[in-house]
Design brief:
Length: about 140
């Protein structure tokens, strides 16, 4: 069933721990890359960890701490996680371009549009599945 909710919270908790690792990796990667950049600073590189922190870790933390026992199904999760990954890669790519002195903003626009679209579709499917589940329970 395309819009069924996943009652197994193990997937939500697994995603929570994966995002913890991703945030730590992004922090270390940005720090190490900046120390080797010969004094050139990119805020996209330094603060790139904020994308998976705010868009990945926080929503799964809210779902985990909430009273609901239901989480997003695999389609919603995969779309949303792909959007977070696309925006994170786009952020670091922009940082690479800034450090090397190149300005090609068309690439960043593509990352933003694709990542935002994936995020929105993941959220939309999740909201539709919640509404459909609530209407079936009534």
């Amino acid at each position: 069933m395309l819009f069924s909710l996943n009652n197994n919270r193990k997937n939500v908790i697994r995603n929570l721990f994966i995002y913890c690792g991703v945030v730590v990796f992004c922090m270390l990667f940005g720090y190490i890359y900046e120390t080797r950049a010969h004094g050139v600073i990119s805020w996209f590189m330094l603060l790139g960890f904020l994308v998976p922190l705010t868009l990945g870790l926080m929503p799964y933390l809210i779902i985990t701490l909430s009273k609901t026992k239901k989480g997003p199904n695999s389609i919603c999760s995969n779309l949303y996680n792909s959007g977070v990954a696309t925006l994170t890669v786009g952020c670091y790519f922009k940082g690479f371009l800034e450090i090397y002195g190149t300005t090609r903003d068309i690439h960043i626009i593509i990352y933003s549009v694709v990542g935002g679209t994936l995020l929105l579709f993941g959220l939309l499917f999740y909201i539709i599945s919640i509404v459909k589940s609530n209407s079936q329970q009534e």
